[in-house]
UniProtKB/TrEMBL annotation, chains A, B:
The keyword DNA-binding applies. Residues 14-74 form the HTH tetR-type domain. Keywords: DNA-binding. It holds the Pfam family TetR_N. This is TetR family transcriptional regulator. Residues 37-56 bind DNA. It comes from the Bacteria. The keyword Glycoprotein does not apply. SUPFAM superfamilies: Homeodomain-like. PANTHER family: HTH-TYPE TRANSCRIPTIONAL REGULATOR PKSA, HTH-TYPE TRANSCRIPTIONAL REGULATOR RUTR.
Length: 224, 224
DNA sequence: ATCAGCCGTGAATAGTTGTTCACTTCTTCG
DNA sequence: CGAAGAAGTGAACAACTATTCACGGCTGAT
């Protein structure tokens, strides 16, 4: 063999792969999943359509990786926020607020990742994505239950319900319109966080306190 | 003119139209929205593919009417259940339970109506459907707030969040598996109803009582 | 009975995109 | 430099279905 992959080439290949994924992500953030078609993504990544297939076996695989990537980022953010909280209830509040802020700051992308119709089958990766996030929330609920802050309950079902509430009310088709206004955005985040905390059994008065504390650090994340 | 539509013909045309819609509904209930293709629906309705287009200008229109029809039924059931309740809080509990029971008893259809990817654009009719149901729930929350049973809140946002929670936890991809078992089904309905009531501010103890009362009549609706 | 006009038909059409592949260009190493 | 092989290209292909439409049969008034 007179040709071997040199380190430089390996790096270039990895960079190109990332560029294609990034192009897909940007496209989805702008125009939703429907806009993520091979040809436009290829153009955006400065490659030919055929090149995309050197890196991803199919469009389904490309989108699956996109979903996985976004999901990873989301999960990391949730963990970071929750781990920084002083107690289990605060951690849960922080986790919920983080999800709310995240989906609001990238609404089209979130909608695409979560629910937008896609012409290829991405159900397994969407399922995995939901499972990860839901599992994390469930763990936080469980911690609060074990600490005696919440009544015993089916934490997995509760976590799923909370995420459904957040997504539907913030990025679903009935989501309020003017969420670009920072004040309205904060109100919406507070409102849904309050709903979520009460849903799992936090007393109204205590929930209101937790919400206020959770929203302060989360606001800083909006830019991230 | 030597031909005019006689009453008999008008009736036959209406019947055929209904048959096509019913075929579409059955198909969706069995195989989801993806299975609702013109050719299979036509076969099921005992007509040719072209005939479908004598009754519906496009597939999008057919599915839109399907969504509207299911939505109408759902709304009627919610109103019936809520109006039969003794007070505003019971009415809200009944409404929530009704939604839960309905989506569970026709999970594939519900998923198709609500969120399943469709190749044609049905966003407007889905939006209308959600608006109707959400509006009804919002009205019930509002009634409970005005009766002093709940704290003041953004009822529209709360209603949307509740529906999101119900749908995601009961028909979403993370919904529990063995909901065919009646006991498990009842547990799931009770759990999510409890979550929903607490979310809007019903005290835990009181919410548990409302749930029990609401689930009794709702169980009878499962067959409907 | 008969004919005008509507209803029903289903094979053919058309438009959309993911995917392929023969060919070109680039990279590595003797 | 030149050969070997990998990466990149993009036009052509394939598959899937909604939609069309020219034709045959049915319905209803005369």
């Amino acid at each position: 063999m007179v040709y071997r992959r040199t380190h430089q080439v390996v790096k270039r290949l990895a960079a190109r792969r990332s560029a294609i994924l990034a192009a897909a992500r940007d496209t989805a953030a702008e125009g939703g999943m429907a806009a993520v078609q091979i040809a436009p993504v290829a153009v955006r990544a400065n490659v030919a359509a055929g090149t995309v297939y050197r890196y991803f076996p199919s469009k389904a695989e490309l989108i699956s990786e996109l979903i996985a990537e976004v999901s990873r980022d989301e999960l990391a953010a949730i963990r970071r926020a929750a781990d920084a909280a002083p107690g289990p209830s605060s951690a849960l509040a922080a986790a919920v607020t983080t999800v709310a802020v995240h989906v609001l700051s990238q609404r089209k992308l979130a909608w695409g990742i979560l629910a937008e119709p896609v012409d290829v089958d991405v159900s397994v990766s969407r399922l995995a994505s939901r499972r990860e996030i839901s599992g994390e929330i469930a763990a936080r609920i469980d911690a609060a239950v074990r600490a005696g802050h919440l009544p015993a309950q089916d934490t997995a079902l509760a976590a799923t319900a909370l995420l459904g509430a957040l997504h539907e009310s913030l990025v679903g088709p009935l989501a309020p319109e003017n969420l670009d206004d920072p004040a309205k955005l904060r109100d919406a985040v507070q409102t849904v966080t309050l709903l979520a905390l009460r849903a799992v059994g936090v007393m109204d008065a205590r929930a209101r306190g937790l919400v206020v504390q959770a929203v302060l650090p989360a606001k800083a994340l909006v830019g991230a």
